[in-house]
Amino acid sequence: MDVNAAVAAVAAIAGLCTGVIAMLAFRLSERERTRPPRDTQQAEATLPPGVDTVLSVLRSSAVVLDEGDGVVKASSAAYALGLVRGGRLAVEPMLRMARDTRRDGEIRQVELDLPRQTRAGRPDVLAVSARSAPLGARLVLLLVEDLTEARRIEAVRRDFVANVSHELKTPAGALSLLSEAVLDAADDPEAVVRFAGRMQNEATRLTNLIQELIDLSRVQDNDMLATAELVPVEELVTEAMDRCRQQAVSKGITVASGGTAGLTVWGNRGQLAAALGNLVENAVNYSPPHTRVAIAGSRAPGRQGELVEIAVTDQGIGITEHDRERIFERFYRVDPARSRATGGTGLGLAIVKHVAASHGGEVIVWSAEGQGSTFTLRLPDPGSAQERRLAARRERDGLGGTLHEPAEFPDSADTDVAADVDPQPHATRTNDPAREALP
Predict the structure, then answer these.
(1) Strand-by-strand arrangement of the 305-313 sheet
(2) Are 396 and 377 in contact (CB under 8 A)?
(3) d(CA 276, CA 271)
(4) How confident is the model at residue 89 (pLDDT cuts 50, 70, 90)?
């Protein structure tokens, strides 16, 4: 009986202990379920105080890595550039640099060219400068500066200086030679008059070139829409026709317009007038005498809303397929000899391209040799144009330096940066949103 009582007592104690353990386990389970994620607590505990505030005022993209190479926090710009994916740093050279810094505590810096896909699906290169430094005892800070725009501007500046030097040299050299000819022909009044007339032509050409360089620089202003307004298309067409009226009359060319009543666009009035004026002036200059130039306005559906189209059609010599691919390049001329005769500088269509791009539109060209050409300026409807600008501003303002945890951003991004990379129709469209900049 004593043995049976002892066994029963032991069993009762064991049952009681099992019940207590089960109850404790249940309570611990409930506490763990309601507790914030451990990673968040660790991030808050390990990130030194004030780091968020300091990094939020930096222009560089910031990424903070923990001991296991996990992303503790990163700025929104780092996510937008595709540097952080799935809570991990997606660029292997930067990851190696961070590990070396964690090992020896030395600050390192490297410049990388990272392949990526643009939103349009085209391959591109993201040029960055990355700097790693220890942050506390266990964290590593990466500061990444986007150098893509700076490099592009530098390349454009070099090309610009080379092109301008060549273009300015031609009329300046001609003026020098003609002035010598005038001096040598001082006793021949007819020769003096002839050379003086040619000097006047070269001086006019030089003046036009300088003015178009100024216009091109203005249209590439980073915030040319700061003074945007509703502009009636009919007023733009009238101004463009007045601009080339004298040339048209001298060649017997009829310039007619239609379909522009009631159409409006949203943008910089002066730049839009310059762009349309260049198209009409080109149509008149490259059309044979006694032909017709037509300007037509209309509405058309677009991928992101309704568009306002302004088409300029001529009956000129037409443009070959090869030249259509290059006519929007600066200083490019389809027929250099004819351009000299008409005073063309090769900058007019480049100005049109940049005005269209900065207003969220494009310019397309249809042409056939011997049949003429049609240049169409396509601009967003005023309502959608203003909404796009506001959306772009909101997106830009949202990419500040404030640090975020990986859980706040999806794994996908608009720009796809490679994870493992070593340092290193008959119509032509020009709708590249990236605008060239001049010094």
Answers:
(1) 254-258, 292-302, 305-313, 372-380, 362-368, 427-430
(2) no
(3) 9
(4) confident
